[in-house]
Amino acid sequence: MNDLTKMGKYLSLILRHKPEIIGIELDDHGWAEVSALIEGINKTGRYIDKEILDKIVETNNKKRYQYNVNQTKIRANQGHSINVDVELQEKSPPNLLYHGTAKKSLENIKKSGIKKMERLYVHLSKDVETAKNVGKRHGLPVVLVIDTKAMVKDGYIFYYSNNGVWLCDDIDYKYVKKVID
Questions:
Q1: CB contact set of 5 (below 8 Å; sequence gap of 6+)
Q2: CA distances in angstroms from 169 to 48, 72, 134, listed in the order given
Q3: Rounded distance, CA 74 to CA 163, Å?
């Protein structure tokens, strides 16, 4: 893992879960002051500057981060375990979306559904390949095909994040149309 990737993962920890580890706070919408973020990270013995931060924001393959218009603030687009309002767009999803998980979790999901766990929302992908890559992070992957058309009919609300991830509340297993190994 290269240094930029390591710093990106550390940034994710700070902006999505634990800003207090570097002594900063996020505002109600998940924004951190860029100068405070840089200063806080550097106090931990790591090194980051605005140029490195820009590179992480630009090159992150999941487009996890965004700046405000004048680049004085930064936030994660989604995936938070802390309660922030990242001003997600409510949007009608395509008829099918995909959820990647580990095969070892499948029996539990069949019993309890897809749970948001420590996050604010369940994350869904627009294609099988992306979902499979998500599942690989947790073990041998499986992809669940989700009938979002039926979910919408039953009153579920979906949000679309700036980086292309679909988000919703816990999903009952009855909406899983198919499991792809």
A1: none
A2: 35, 32, 18
A3: 14
Structure tokens at 154: 């039953």
Q: 50-59 and 34-42 are packed helices; what angle lies between their axes, rounded to 10 degrees? A: 110
Q: Could you tell me which of 173, 181, 115, 120 has the C-alpha nearest to residue 146? A: 173
pLDDT digit string, tens, across residues 3-22: 899 999 999 999 999 999 99
**Buried b / exposed e along 99-126 (16+ C-beta atoms within 10 A):** bbbbeeebeebeeeebeeeebbbbbbbb
Q: Give the pLDDT confidence of 24-66 residue by residue, as tens digits.
A: 999 999 999 999 999 999 999 999 999 999 999 999 878 889 9
